Amino acid sequence: MARKTIEQRLAELDAQRATLKARLSKQERARDTRRKVLLGALVLHRLEHGRDEISRSLPDWLRRELPGFLTREMDKELFADLIKPPADGGTAS
What we know:
Elements: H1 6-49, H2 53-69, H3 73-78, H4 80-83
Helix pairs in contact: 1-2
């Protein structure tokens, strides 16, 4: 069996490195997505069930911050229930 040249071995190592970098990138994206989902779940839970001061001020904060954060119209529609002013015209309870 013929030995591989140094160039062949380097090419194989470069391919392995690229594969590992792609795998790492995928893992990092999955971790980032999981963090966002869990954080969003916490915010939604606090909106629905929270009784402390932070939970009570959360709807007003979201109405102020979300419109500037969301850039796509379809995203704004997705959060329309959180962006619209409260029915009583005051702060949400």
